[in-house]
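ok so I'm stuck.
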Amino acid sequence: MAYYQLTERAIEPDYSFKFSTRSTDGTFSGLDGTVIFSPSDVENAKIDVKLDAATIETGSNKKNEHVNSADWLDTKKYPEIRFTSSKFQKQGDAFIVDGLMMLHGVCKSVQVPFNYSEADGKFTGSFTINRSDYGVTGAGMKAKFVGEEIEISFSIPTSLKQ
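replied:
not stuck anymore, here's the structure
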C-alpha cells in the first residue's frame, strides 16, 4: 500500500449529492468546504463541508418552491446544511466518519460510512436521517407522503489542493 501524505483536497465540480424519500428524489448543489484526508492517516483527517440548502432540485419547480418554504427547509432562515467531522475510523476496506450535521438550525450527531478511491480521490457513500429529528416536519398530508426517513447518497471526486 502506498503512503499518502495527509493533505487538503479540493472538491471537484462533478460531484453528486442526492436525497431520496418515499415520494420524492432530488439533488443539492452548492457543495463547498474543507476536506483533509489520507487513507493512511485517518486519525488526523477532517471534513467541514456545507451545501446551499436553496439549491434543492426535485424536478418540479412547484416542489422546489414548497420544500424551500417555511413549511419544510425554510431556506431563507436556514440557508445551509453543514457537516463537520469529529472522528474517522477505518473499517475493512471502507471508512466511517462521525460528526455533526446541522440542518434546519438543528445539530445532530451522525455516522457516515463511505468508500474512498485512492486512484481518483473519490468519496462515495450513503446514510439515512430522520427529517423530524431536525425539525423538518412539513405540513398537512404531504408530510405523510414524504415519510420520515431521508436517504442521502453522495459521490464526491477530489484532487490535491494546490
